[in-house]
Design brief:
Shape: globular
Number of strands: 7
CATH superfamily of one domain: Vaccinia Virus protein VP39
Number of helices: 6
Strand order of the largest sheet: 3-2-1-4-5-7-6
Order of helices and strands: HHHEHEEEHEHEE
CATH class of one domain: Alpha Beta
Radius of gyration: 20 Å
Strand content: 15-25%
Distance between the termini: 72 Å
Length: 214
């Protein structure tokens, strides 16, 4: 009787089991890293992607390249706003001591661990911003709208235009090229951004100034 009962227990395939073990091992390593002194709260991946929020972090190389471009574009003592672009914010914060300031506008409240530089942001309410966030007070706004839809881009564009003194660096899908030009007057760059996990849609950068991304 006992043997018959055992047959009813669903067995995981060896492939699934191996994948599960790998997942738990990665999780343990991450937890270990978080408790070690070497852990950097600004490193990409310190806050994990939430796909339900359409989050896909840039590769380390891409985030570094965009952060470098942001600093150059903002200029000495410049102010940079990262709108729905947390991995660029994190990379900028790793450059501690550089002569610029940065804030992060983000829907995901996990990023509130970054203190006063975190500003809760919902693109559905593009101008619902704190009073101390004055219009045209940022030398550069870098934005990565969470969804590839004209509505999302249009609403995020309202926020960008409110915040920027002029310079815009937009990261979105190649299919949004016409809408990006229409709503923000930006042109596609030669630089091709990459993510830590491959996306199905081709991704590109767009600017409205002479940038180092061409």
């Amino acid at each position: 009787k006992m043997d018959d009962d055992d047959d009813d227990i669903p067995q995981l395939s060896s492939h699934t089991l191996a994948a599960l073990q790998e997942f738990y091992l990665e999780q343990q390593q991450r937890e270990g890293m978080k408790t070690s002194q070497e852990f950097n709260q600004y490193s990409i991946g310190s806050i994990e992607e939430d796909w339900q929020l359409s989050q896909f972090w840039y590769s380390d190389e891409t985030a570094s390249c965009l952060a470098k471009e942001a600093v150059l574009a903002a200029g000495k003592g410049g102010r940079i706003a990262c709108v729905s672009a947390p991995s660029v914010y994190q990379k900028l914060k790793e450059q501690d001591g550089e002569d610029f300031s940065v804030c992060i506008l983000e829907y995901d409240r996990r990023f509130s661990v970054y203190g006063e530089e975190f500003i809760f942001y919902d693109y559905n309410h593009p101008l619902n911003l704190p009073e101390n966030l004055l219009p045209h007070s940022f030398d550069l706004v870098i934005a990565d709208p969470p969804y590839l839809s004209e509505e999302c881009l249009q609403k995020t564009a309202e926020t960008i235009k409110y915040l920027t003194k002029g310079k815009i660096l937009l990261c979105t899908g190649a299919i949004m090229e016409e809408q990006a030009a229409e709503h923000l007057g930006v042109k596609m760059c030669k630089f091709i951004p990459k993510h830590s996990r491959n996306l199905a849609n081709e991704f590109r950068c767009y600017v409205n100034y002479a940038s180092g991304l061409d």
